[in-house]
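Bumping with the actual sequence this time:
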Amino acid sequence: MNGAVIIGDRVRGRADLLDRAARLASAMAAAGVGAGDAVALLLRNDFAVLEANLAVRKLDAYGVPINWHWHGAEIGYVLRDAAPRLLIGHADLLDGIRDEIPDDLPVIAVGGTGERQDYDGWIAAHPPYAGNGNGLGSSMVYTSGTTGKPKAVKRLPATGEESAQRARLLSVIHDTAPGNVALVTGPLYHLFSQAILMATFGAGGTVAVMERFDPEECLRLIQKHGVTHSALVPTLFVRLLRLPEEVKARYDLSTLRHVVHSGAPCAPEVKRAMLNWWGPVLYETYGSTETGVVTKISPEEWLARPGSVGRPVLTGEVCIRDEGGQWAGPGLTGDVYLRIHGTPDFTFHGDPAKRAAVEHDGLITCGDMGWLDEEGYLFLCDRRVDMVISGGVNIYPAEVEAALLEHPGVGDCAVFGVPDPEFGEALVAHVQADATLTPDAVKAFLRGRIAGYKVPRHVVVGHALPREETGKIMKRRLRENFLANAPA
């Protein structure tokens, strides 16, 4: 089974997957896909994701993974903006956006029957593609921002050495080796999940893919397949930790060696609880869609420096830029700039000016703020767009959220700013808890842990917070709801 991909009860071996990917490349080429062209992928977690990514690389083309949780209009925007040569999607997802698909865009359907070309039949009708590309194929990823339309991060054509450096980076981040057995827990339209799939398969390992995350099913698959490696976002840790103790004790997790977490901040008490349960196997990484992963921290390093996201790996570099535009020394907070030198560069599709705006001295900022200690370990404060300036004082919501999560009755939380006539901005805390926890009790709890000016003026106690599949809270939606319902 080494080199296979497993999804539920379905298994495809390495040779079969490579053959199908080569035939898919031929089919794409026959449909007019060439170097530099885009292929849109509206796919759930399925073999087609791996096959399509391998195929576009053979053609030096770009895969454009689309978040299928988006509304039809959002998907339609991507299909128009990316101008793909081809759209491959699951049949039911395509049915849901029928009116958003451009009339002249060829569509290939995975599963289902009807007027569209069937994916499996299309592949079978073509011989394997003879070429292997020049290493220029990559991805064009639309990331949801806090405002405006999704932005497309597009990798520039890579040299041979840049491609090799990218491969070395993935090997370091995910500790790849031929005998690894990896578990994919998140959606494959997100690069965090896609990276461990591609890296493990590329190194000759076996990959089990969850179609949707379920905490007990995750434990069952780790035991069943002898999983050694995985990648999870912190919100999945919380769901795992909430399992009854008898369920946790039911499964043997001793094969785990290397579990990467990233994508959102992880509360220190959550990470400690996971380390106590799973052992010293949790490795945290930090980067962005634009830069790729730049820092990594081992469990032992994190326990010595709780809250850090690590030091740069390989040719990575991290610097802090202060409000005056100068590079700041250790202990000083500012905008985080970073980069892995020698890997493929990027641009924002159709917006080179935006690309130039995020660069300084060859380093890139993705909007986070933080500081470095004397040994070069990076600590994050918050995103600049989330930072609240109340009465002229900078407040970082992430610090308040970490304090809130120490309350045993708080299951989840989000803190954000809203306009305030007196202070410019005021803090709002949306807390997931039952009705017995009152806003006044929340404020009293916080006053014993953080400075008074950081205690939110408004506290909303409610139900589950809206999160993306990657674990990021949709603060924009919470802010809009609060303002819509705030008293005049």
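The tokens above came from a reply further down the thread. The chain is about 30% helix and 25% strand.
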